[in-house]
TrEMBL record:
Keywords carried by this UniProt record: Acyltransferase, Repeat, Transferase
Listed name of the protein: Acetyltransferase
Alphabetical list of Gene3D superfamilies matching this protein: Hexapeptide repeat proteins
One Pfam family linked to the record: Hexapep
Source species: Halomicronema hongdechloris C2206
Enzyme class: transferase
Key word Transferase present: yes
Length: 265
C-alpha cells in the first residue's frame, strides 16, 4: 500500500454540538446568515455600514487604483486623501494597492507605498495601522491587522514581499531596515492541548511583537509572536527569531542565536 493510501486511514476529528470554533467579532459578522453579501463586503473591506462610505471606497479605489504611470500617481495623491483617517503631505501610492478599513489607517509625510502593497486595518475594536514619516513599504508587501494594531516608526524601510500581521500589537520602531521576504507574525499561535477536537476550535494565543529603533532584519527573517528585539540589533538572513534579543546584538540561525554584541567590537 502506498504512503498516499496510508495517509487517509484515520477518522477525521469532528466538532461536537457543545463545542464551538472561537471567532473574532469580524469573523462572526462575516458568517452571519442574516447579513447580505453586500453587508459582509462592507464589514470586510470598508469597515462601515454607511452607503456613502461604500460608494466613496468603490469609486476611488476602483477608478484610480489600477491606473499606471505618472497619471495614476497624481490622481491617487489627489483623491485618496479622503479615504484615510489622516494623511500627511507628499505621500505616494503605487497602483493596485489593496486598502481595507481605510478610516483606521494613519499615514505620515513623504511615505511611499509601492505597487500591489496591502494596507489592511480590519477589525471591530482595534486602532488599526499608524505609519510614521519617510517610510517606504515595498511592492507586494502586506501590512495586515487581525483586530490588532500595527505602528511603524519614522524613516523605516520595509522591502518587497514582506508580511507583517498583528492580532494584538506589532510595533516597529524608527530607522528600521526590513529586507525582502521577512515575516513578522504578531499572533496566530493556536492552543493545541486537546486532541479530541480540531486545533481550529481551541482558540489562539496572542502576545505581540516589538522591534525597537535602528534594527536591521536581513532577507527571509521570521519573527514569531511574543518577541522583543531591542535597539540596534542585526538579524542575519534566513534566521527564525523564537526568543527576545538584547540591544546591539547580531543573531543568526534557526533558531536565532546571538553571535556578537556590537558594542563590544
Amino acid at each position: 500500500m502506498s504512503n498516499i493510501e496510508n495517509f487517509s486511514t484515520h477518522e477525521p476529528l469532528t466538532i461536537q454540538k457543545n463545542e464551538e470554533i472561537q471567532k473574532t467579532a469580524l469573523q462572526a459578522a462575516l458568517i452571519d446568515s442574516k447579513k447580505s453579501a453586500l453587508q459582509k463586503y462592507q464589514d470586510f473591506a470598508v469597515g462601515s455600514s454607511k452607503l456613502s462610505a461604500l460608494l466613496k471606497y468603490e469609486i476611488l479605489t476602483g477608478i484610480f487604483g489600477p491606473i499606471p504611470g505618472a497619471l495614476g500617481l497624481v490622481l491617487r495623491k489627489r483623491f485618496y486623501k479622503s479615504l484615510f483617517g489622516s494623511i500627511g503631505r507628499g505621500v505616494v501610492f503605487g497602483k493596485s494597492i489593496t486598502i481595507r478599513h481605510p478610516h483606521k489607517i494613519h499615514i505620515g509625510e513623504n511615505v511611499i507605498i509601492d505597487d500591489y502593497a496591502v494596507l489592511d486595518a480590519k477589525g471591530t475594536d482595534n486602532q488599526g495601522i499608524t505609519i510614521g514619516n519617510n517610510v517606504m513599504i515595498g511592492r507586494n508587501s502586506v501590512i495586515s491587522c487581525k483586530n490588532g494594531d500595527i505602528t511603524i516608526g519614522d524613516n523605516t524601510n520595509i522591502a518587497m514581499n514582506c508580511f507583517i500581521q498583528s492580532a494584538k500589537t506589532v510595533h516597529i520602531g524608527a530607522n528600521v531596515l526590513i529586507a525582502p521576504y521577512c515575516y513578522v507574525i504578531g499572533g496566530g499561535d493556536h492552543e493545541t492541548v486537546r486532541t479530541d477536537i480540531p486545533i481550529i476550535a481551541q482558540g489562539q494565543i496572542v502576545k505581540g511583537i516589538i522591534i525597537e529603533d535602528n534594527c536591521w532584519l536581513g532577507a527571509d527573517v521570521k519573527v514569531l509572536d511574543g518577541i522583543k528585539i531591542e535597539r540596534d540589533s542585526i538579524i542575519g538572513t534566513g534566521a527564525v527569531v523564537t526568543k527576545s534579543l538584547p540591544e546591539f546584538n547580531v543573531a543568526v540561525g534557526i533558531p536565532a542565536k546571538v553571535i556578537k554584541i556590537r558594542k563590544n567590537g
